[in-house]
Amino acid sequence: xxxxxxxxxxxxxxxxxxxxxxxxxxxxxxxxxxxxxxxxxxxxxxxxxxxxxxxxxxxxxxxxxxxxxxxxxxxxxxxxxxxxxxxxxxxxxxxxxxxxxxxxxxxxxxxxxxxxxxxxxxxxxxxxxxxxxxxxxxxxxxxxxxxxxxxxxxxxxxxxxxxxxxxxxxxxxxxxxxxxxxxxxxxxxxxxxxxxxxxxxxxxxxxxxxxxxxxxxxxxxxxxxxxxxxxxxxxxxxxxxxxxxxxxxxxxxxxxxxxxxxxxxxxxxxxxxxxxxxxxxxxxxx
Length: 286
Description:
This protein is of the alpha/beta class. It has three domains: 3-124, Tetrapyrrole methylase, N-terminal domain (Cobalt-precorrin-4 Transmethylase, domain 1, 3-Layer(aba) Sandwich); 127-237, Tetrapyrrole methylase, C-terminal domain (Methyltransferase, Cobalt-precorrin-4 Transmethylase, Domain 2, 2-Layer Sandwich), CATH 3.30.950; 244-283, no CATH class. The protein contains twelve helices and ten strands. It has helices at residues 3-9, 30-38, 47-57, 72-83, 105-113, 126-134, 151-162, 177-188, 212-219, 244-255, 261-272, 276-283; strands spanning 14-18, 41-44, 63-66, 88-91, 118-121, 141-146, 167-172, 193-198, 206-211, 228-232. Helix 7 (151-162) links the parallel strand 6 and strand 7 (167-172). Helix 4 packs parallel to helix 5 (105-113). The longest helix is centred in the N-terminal third of the chain and has 12 residues, at 72-83. It is globular and about 65 Å long. The N and C termini lie far apart (75 Å).
């Protein structure tokens, strides 16, 4: 039996999550390619984008199902129907590992709830590569994907990142990079270390390292190209304790932005992980 036969024989019925290259097409694993060639159905974000990859490896599924952020829920019924026949169904995203800041989470959950098996072929994930190459602590990490663009959820998440004891990784679009770095510098301080990773595995791969204050300046000089992974150093242990001044500052920043006092109390309670009674008592004096 050849190596190719061994790989193919291990492909069982079920939903397969296949990690695809984030840049360099050579990063698709032989097993991942074998699953895609064996799949009766492949779910993808964009048929044109994925079609070129599938053609390159000689994969010709019976059907391509679009499962992006808008259509993933609608694809579930079709996928479960194919799985009921014992088919091999593959799920890929435009780049990287499906269901990680990409569509797939709902499809995986529906498959499991329906009693079918989920398999995977591991491979590229931009946030894993970014933190491994960052030079920042890697023993404990927090992956936060994309921040909310505005509102109370964004403020809460920024506050959580500022007080996070683990190294944090965020994703950001190039045209929103400067705004996010400004917001991070505001809550974390200009001196917090950060690594900006982009174009990973590609010809112009770039890893910029420095402080958040310098990163803001740097962001104004670079061409807005390629999605970024931001790796942010953890807060130092001695600065984790929440003081009354911390609470006042967070309350003031929210009320000055037009947030009601009641909503500000709720947000600060959630973001700082302190009791609502304590936050409310301080809010009376702000």
